[in-house]
Specification:
Two copies of one chain form a homodimer. With 387 residues, chain A is an alpha/beta fold. Chain A has 14 helices and twelve strands. In chain A, the strands form three sheets. A six-stranded parallel sheet of chain A has the order 2-1-3-4-5-11. A four-stranded parallel sheet of chain A has the order 7-6-8-9, sandwiched between helices. Chain A starts with 18 loop residues before the first helix and ends in a 22-residue tail after the last strand. Chain A binds a DNA duplex (16 and 16 nucleotides) through helix 2 and helix 4. Chains A, B: This is LacI family DNA-binding transcriptional regulator.
DNA sequence: TTGAAAGCGCTAACAA
DNA sequence: TTGTTAGCGCTTTCAA
């Protein structure tokens, strides 16, 4: 017998009601109350109705925490993602129109995960990193879910290492970080293939030969992979390609893209080319490419006539800018869905399966900024796009 | 003394480690382990390090459930939203380009809530309704969060009634459902004002006089409010406006919008007008308006030359279609942020504050489909928009 | 600064 | 079909 609860059932001491209260009020045991919620059919209808009535009257809501604790599962999957906002775009005047059109990675992944999670009866807990939180982000999430996905480089590797020993974790995008983490499932996107194909397109289909690549940090795995794709395509075509990107940006923001474009233009010497002018600027992501479009417009450089510009990612904004941005589209939504599938399977039958490593294919999207496409806009309901 | 745990600390029986394991391994009490995570400064540094080392070695992660249970709080806020996917758009071939551009309400709200929640140190739990789940959606969410927001008409009123007695709930969009729920905080959007202003624009600025309004279900409060705004503007201008929308759509999808446009055209008699032709079709949401644009194009009716078309919501897709859709933009992101602010405040100082009822202002966005705007697209980086 | 002990509200055997 | 009971892993007084 548990100690008498410090509350008289009739005498207005409002604590949140528990199974005990419902049980007492409906004249059954707490086990029966529990059954009514977990497995209604295992309780006689008459009884069940009495219990539900009591619950209603008391305002009873089962405690997820208590349930989770007792049953060792939460019915929740998690997602940790970095604070991905582009400082350029994230102005104080929040609801600008650009902002609206600006749907990031994480939104797509969230959509994908939410949808898949729902299909499997899970809810989704999302949390973005915020530097200097008291406890590490992961810990907060990890303690509340049955398994979770992490966007690469969101959380310290060591934290992940500890946590992934206790529950399923799938790493999204970016290559395996290190051998420490090789027991994680892992889904990546074909960055190298995509950039190679896009570069090939510029070289072979548009006949461009003087290309430059603007990359990201050395430790940004996606940007690095894209650069490798670029190198490969150049070399395959017999064009020179250095060991390093022509330029590197730290945050890969629009502002940096604009600066890069300026620098590239200045580098060649202002105006008519003594050193032959660049024919194509390839950026490691769409944000930079869009910033570059702005900068080029300001300087009166025509795209794609004077120079072709390409990005990578396939963010919606890339389609709204003029000229529309040629890019490589990442299947972020699918990434989220696959992540959930992997988690669910590992929580079920495949508890001890070997870690998998999926590579999702990407699409080259040819728009106006590389010299493709450019149908008249009027009468076209879906936005011009060349195959 | 609790019963001996059925696990030898040295003898490979891998259970997930608990405070007890960490305590034992580091030679302290479980209380101290707990302190290390909750309030590190209250533990001597030497001790703390020993505890953390042990935790690391064991792969210890605090159980969110146990913590929540013991401390009666979760550090999580929730959002329940309906399964809002437009069946027309949600084809099996998931990653179509339209789909990409199609960012719903819920995404915006999620963004807003996530951001605000993060600022306050909360994580966000999201769950969409799925008909026929075993337990009601709310119950699942409600038990795991400190407070949550619900999109109007996502969950049965009675469930909300019970739950909102136990934890803070804020209702988003749509008017108060009933007097039962008048202890909930509530945030709505100025549907009526927005539609009134948009309608006034068509009448006064474009000189249109033969308007029709395509609404939603009678029980869809937003659509109803919009219709009222339409009525008011018509009457203010001395134009006739019936007691009912000219047409109602059940799901307010693109397909229904297309059908509505067809019906409206057929109603007037095919071809040259015996009964004077409609000059403007106003739809209760963007989805329908976009469907209508398709239908009109198929029939060779020019927009806005032959007929003006408007929507409501401000979804990104509305900007991509041609002609770009004139609409009223809802501040969904802000809706999410305000919701979190309300919840956080009610969880803090304002526990017993009177329920509030916020009304967020909207913007009329004038684009080409009403006859406004239409700047050349080339060289315009942000997409044409008239003030 | 640390420890002992009593729950937090529920589930899950096992009995009846 | 229903009841009994022993935890689930943590926080939290209260003492030391």
């Amino acid at each position: 017998m548990r100690f008498q609860r410090s509350r008289e059932t009739g005498g207005r001491v409002s604590t949140t009601p528990t199974v005990y209260d419902v049980a007492e009020r409906s004249g059954v045991s707490i086990a029966t109350v529990s059954r009514v919620y977990r497995n209604p059919d295992s309780v006689r209808e008459k009884t069940r109705e009495r219990v539900l009535a009591a619950a209603r009257e008391l305002g009873y809501v089962p405690s997820g925490n208590a349930r989770g604790l007792a049953s060792r599962s939460t019915g929740v999957l998690g997602l940790c993602f970095p604070d991905y906002s582009d400082p350029d775009t994230e102005t104080e005047a929040a609801d600008t129109d650009d902002d609206h059109a600006f749907m990031l990675y994480s939104d797509q992944i969230i959509r994908g995960m939410e949808r898949a999670a729902r299909r499997h009866g899970y809810a989704l807990l999302i949390a973005a990193s915020l530097k200097g939180g008291p406890e590490s982000l992961v810990a907060k999430v990890a303690g509340r879910v049955d398994g979770f996905a992490v966007l690469a480089r969101t959380v310290p590797t060591e934290d992940l290492d500890v946590i992934s020993r206790r529950l399923p974790v799938v790493m999204l995008a970016g290559p395996r970080e290190s051998d420490h983490l090789d027991h994680l499932d892992h889904i990546e996107v074909a960055n190298e293939d995509g950039q190679r194909e896009l570069t090939r397109h510029l070289i072979e289909d548009h006949g461009l030969r003087r290309l430059v690549f603007v990359g990201g940090e050395e430790r940004a795995p996606d940007a690095q992979a894209r650069f490798r794709g670029y190198q490969e395509a150049c070399r395959a075509a017999g064009l020179p390609a250095g060991e390093e990107p022509d330029l590197r940006a730290e945050m890969m923001t629009q502002a940096e893209g604009a600066r890069a474009a300026d620098a590239l233009l200045d580098r060649a010497g202002p105006g008519d080319g003594a050193s032959a002018p660049v024919q194509a600027m390839l950026f490691a992501n769409d944000q930079m490419a869009i910033g570059a479009l702005h900068a080029l417009e300001r300087r009166g450089v025509r795209v794609p006539d004077d120079v072709a510009v390409t990005g990578f990612d396939g963010i919606p904004l890339g389609r709204l800018v003029r000229p529309a941005l040629t890019t490589v589209r990442q299947p972020m939504r699918q990434l989220g869905e696959e992540a959930v599938e992997l988690l669910v399977r590992r929580l079920g039958e495949e508890r001890d399966r070997e870690p998998v490593d999926l590579m999702l294919p990407v699409d080259v999207v040819r728009r106006a900024s590389c010299g493709c496409a450019g149908r008249p806009a009027h009468g076209d309901l879906s936005g011009a796009e060349a195959g």
